[in-house]
DNA sequence: TATTGTTATACTCTATAACTATA
DNA sequence: TATAGTTATAGAGTATAACAATA
């Protein structure tokens, strides 16, 4: 039996390490074109075409200035476009270019291939566990806003 | 049944998000004294008293210059000490100060409390899954050097 | 007056290149 | 010559503060 605290300890050790693996894979291997935050932002705009800066910031959990700079880099490199929103001129409408879609897909493929290869040594039963565990984490951290403190 | 690729996809979505939660908790809540890499380095030296810079770099998966600067910050703030190693004068011996131990313990406690609270909504069965899943990930990413490519 | 976004500034993380000192 | 570590330099990620434009 594991206590919530045991699980918390486990997360605190394993998550940063896994994150570092993903980050260095993205940086060093085939597709150093995108950092992890860039990848996430690009993927979000790809799923939500016409998104505003605030929507990206909300999704990423970043401040507006941080998001503005992040998006700037992606626009400079022609992975994203920025247009005015005619219905509310304070807002912008972001969109992924075809160039951006290619980069996004390449980056996703390379990283998935890397992870998939690593996971080839894991038994089916363990993989089910990982999936169920990730689902629980997702539910708690990504969707459960009921217990989340409101931070101004 | 989940394929390795399904699991990889899941990791690629959930791990960065969870990492961001941990990072922003450490930054914004009670103990903004340590960033995640600083916490990890300090915890490593605490477990391996007298460690050299190279040992920290290996553990963290960072280059020597990056590690040198990271450690510098911790020394400047009197969380770590640096001594010469008399047996090999090229090496240094790192140690945690009592001040560093206090900070480390506070930071660990605050983050664990935060995670533990989040996990209070997870059923025991799901927690077992998370633990088993983390164990599998740990085995694959942290210990399995057999299939890891050697990157110079 | 409140919301959306940008610019200015600053700090940490991280890398590569070039260096010093020791083995 | 090889190894351990530092310094110089640079780019990305992130924040807060101050601002402009629009609602």
Characterise this structure.
By secondary structure, the first copy, chain A, is mainly α. Chain A has helices spanning 4-28, 36-47, 53-60, 64-76, 98-119, 124-143; strands at residues 80-84, 92-96. Chain A has a two-stranded antiparallel ribbon. In chain A, a hairpin with a 7-residue loop joins strand 1 (80-84) and strand 2 (92-96). The relative contact order of chain A is 0.11. The model of chain A is unreliable at 145-152 (pLDDT under 50). Chain A binds a DNA duplex (23 and 23 nucleotides) through helix 4.
Offer a few descriptive terms.
mainly alpha, DNA-binding, 2 strands, two-stranded antiparallel sheet, 152 residues
Coarse shape of chain A: globular
Q: Biggest protein-protein interface?
A: A-B, 59 and 59 residues
Relative strand content of chain A: 5-15%
How many strand segments of chain A? 2
From the N-terminal CA to the C-terminal CA of chain A, the straight-line distance is 37 Å
Helix percent of chain A reads 55-70%
Query: What does the radius of gyration of chain A come to?
Result: 18 Å
Which structural class fits the helix and strand makeup of chain A?
mainly alpha
H-E string of chain A: HHHHEEHH
Low-confidence residue ranges of chain A: 145-152
Strand order of the largest sheet of chain A: 1-2
The total of helices of chain A stands at 6
Average pLDDT confidence of chain A is 88
How would a textbook summarize the main sheet of chain A? 2 strands, antiparallel
- Which assembly state applies to the chains in this document? homodimer
């Amino acid at each position: 039996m594991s206590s919530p605290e045991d699980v918390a300890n486990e997360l605190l050790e394993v998550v940063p390490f896994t994150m570092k693996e993903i980050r260095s894979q993205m940086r060093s291997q085939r597709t150093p074109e995108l950092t992890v935050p860039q990848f996430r932002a690009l993927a979000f705009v790809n799923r939500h075409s016409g998104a505003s800066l605030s929507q990206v910031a909300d999704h990423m959990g970043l401040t507006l200035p941080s998001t503005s700079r992040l998006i700037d880099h992606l626009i400079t490199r022609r992975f994203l476009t920025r247009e005015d929103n005619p219905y509310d001129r304070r807002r912008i409408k972001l969109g992924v270019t075809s160039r951006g879609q290619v980069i996004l897909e390449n980056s996703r493929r390379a990283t998935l291939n890397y992870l998939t290869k690593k996971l080839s040594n894991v038994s089916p039963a363990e993989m089910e566990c990982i999936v169920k565990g990730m689902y629980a984490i997702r539910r708690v951290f990504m969707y459960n806003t009921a217990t989340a403190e409101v931070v101004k």
